[in-house]
């Protein structure tokens, strides 16, 4: 899968030339509609006004051209039957660095190797890159006038466990 190594330089050259043509065309520009980086990144994909950054777009409008993506991807806590055909992998979640530039590995133990007990399930994601919050539905994230609940279980401060 991918480009044969002996053709990589030519591919990159052509890619750079095509990108340069797009930039110089003046038809496209970076989307910058919200001062909040997470909200701006999220709106880049949700804005329906054919924003200036959109190059390859396929618009859907019911009833002529529709899909069931939203229904199929809805979190179980927002559906009455099955849900979440896909979920982000731990590798994807941890690929988002922290805003201080440190690797995105989730902090589960302290410097002494002791488990970290978070006050809220979403606290483990504190200080992640803003693109994380725009791309990943995490425990406590706002969703359809509610708050998303995603967990397998919780270990309480007294050591007892609460199953999901």
List the helices and strands and how they pair.
Elements: H1 8-25, H2 37-46, H3 69-73, H4 90-95, H5 130-135, E1 142-143, E2 146-147, E3 153-155, E4 161-163
| Percent in strands | 5-15%
Reported for the largest beta sheet, the result is: 2 strands, antiparallel
**Helicity range of the residues?**
25-40%
Sequence stretches where pLDDT stays below 50 over 5 or more residues: none
Strand element count: 4
Q: What spatial order of strands do you see in the largest sheet?
A: 1-2
Question: Structural class, from secondary structure content?
Answer: mainly alpha
Overall shape: it is globular
Q: Secondary-structure element sequence? A: HHHHHEEEE
- What quaternary form is this? single chain
* SS summary, helix count: 5
Radius of gyration: 21 Å
Pfam family, one: SusD_RagB
Keywords: Cell outer membrane, Membrane, Signal
GO cellular component, one term: cell outer membrane
Main location: membrane
Comma- or semicolon-separated keywords:
164 residues; two-stranded antiparallel sheet; mainly alpha
Q: How would you describe this protein?
A:
The protein has 164 residues and is mainly alpha-helical. The chain has a domain at 68-163. Helices cover 27% and strands 6% of the residues. The chain has 5 helices and 4 strands, in the order αααααββββ. It has a two-stranded antiparallel sheet with strand order 1-2. A two-stranded antiparallel ribbon has the order 3-4. A hairpin with a 5-residue loop joins β3 (153-155) and β4.
């Amino acid at each position: 899968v991918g480009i044969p190594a002996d053709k990589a330089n030519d591919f990159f050259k052509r890619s750079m030339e095509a990108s340069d043509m797009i930039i110089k065309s003046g038809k496209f520009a970076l989307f910058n509609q919200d001062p909040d980086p997470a909200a701006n990144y999220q709106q880049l994909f949700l804005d329906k006004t054919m924003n200036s950054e959109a190059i390859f777009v396929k618009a859907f409008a019911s009833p002529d051209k529709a899909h069931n993506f939203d229904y199929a991807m809805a979190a179980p806590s927002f559906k009455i039957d099955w849900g979440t055909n896909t979920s982000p992998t731990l590798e994807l979640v941890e690929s988002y660095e922290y805003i201080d530039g440190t690797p995105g590995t989730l902090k589960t133990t302290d410097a002494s190797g002791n488990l970290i007990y978070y006050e809220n399930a979403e606290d483990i994601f504190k200080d992640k890159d803003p693109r994380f919050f725009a791309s990943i539905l995490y425990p406590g994230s706002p969703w359809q006038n509610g708050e998303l609940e995603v967990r397998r279980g919780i270990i309480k401060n007294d050591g007892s466990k609460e199953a999901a």
